[in-house]
Write a structure and sequence with these properties.
TIM Barrel; eight-stranded parallel barrel; alpha/beta; about 15% strand
């Protein structure tokens, strides 16, 4: 826990399970929350605004990101303005492009100039980070979410990408770089090392926080014990007598 307390990167919890988010809110290590329409659908949410407002009532003191789901820029802006009105701790998630691969620069620029705190999401490349940075109002808080985990899924090391992204956003002091879609707990420490401001972490990865600093010799023994215990519980058996007879015959 001491190692975690020294982290400069802020840990946000990612998900759409209401009870899980409320539980995470009690953990001082969790500095904010993110969600998206896909996570909400998977969690069975049917009333988008109702769920968001209920969540904001339960978590009034930490930033929460909610995403627009329009595909046309004008409707995207209308949805963004409505979402921003739900609470002072809301970041409005705007996808870096729409489904036609059109960069949402005008939407980002106009909303940021209007003072709306954004979370520009689904970012994968450094040119996208440069485009976004150029659209952000210097005085308006913003988050730029680079999906480092998905970058890694393609066989590319995301660490140099994220380090360069930090540099690109350096002239936007109100803009925070977020390491999105982490795949393992190690990513928290990688994000911290490169200077990311935020990492958003799913509950399954957060559940591993208790392993930080664990003695590896002890962990090795526990793994051996687990394999042994499960083999016994399953009733596995190998007829070593038959093998010994075959070896003797040979």
């Amino acid at each position: 826990m001491e190692r975690l307390s020294r982290l400069g990167v802020k840990i946000f919890a990612d998900g759409a399970d209401f009870d899980g988010i409320v539980a995470m809110h009690k953990n001082p290590l969790i500095k904010g929350f993110t969600t998206n329409p896909s996570l909400m659908r998977k969690a069975g949410v049917s009333d988008y605004e109702g769920f968001a407002r209920r969540l904001l009532a339960a978590v009034p003191d930490r930033p929460i990101s909610f995403e627009v789901f329009a595909d046309e820029p004008a409707e995207m802006m209308r949805q963004a303005e409505a979402i921003a009105s739900w609470g002072p701790n809301v970041n409005v998630k705007i996808p870096v492009t729409n489904t036609r691969r059109e960069f949402m620069g005008r939407v980002i620029e106009e909303l940021s100039e209007a003072g709306i705190a954004l979370n520009v999401t689904a970012v994968m490349t450094l040119p996208q980070v440069r485009q976004i940075g150029a659209c952000l109002a210097p005085g308006t808080p913003a988050i730029v979410s680079v999906f480092a985990g998905r970058v890694a899924d393609t066989g590319i090391d995301p660490v140099p990408v994220m380090r360069e992204a930090v540099s690109i956003l350096a002239d936007r002091p109100k803009a925070e770089l977020l390491w999105a879609s982490p795949r393992e707990l190690l990513n928290i420490f990688q994000a911290d090392e490169v200077g990311c401001h935020i990492i958003t972490v799913t509950h399954d990865v957060l559940a591993k926080l208790g392993l930080v600093g664990k003695d590896l010799d002890r962990y090795s023994l526990e793994t051996v014990e687990m394999f042994y215990r499960d083999a016994v519980a399953a009733g596995f058996a190998i007829d070593t007598g038959r093998q010994a007879a075959r070896t003797a015959a040979e």
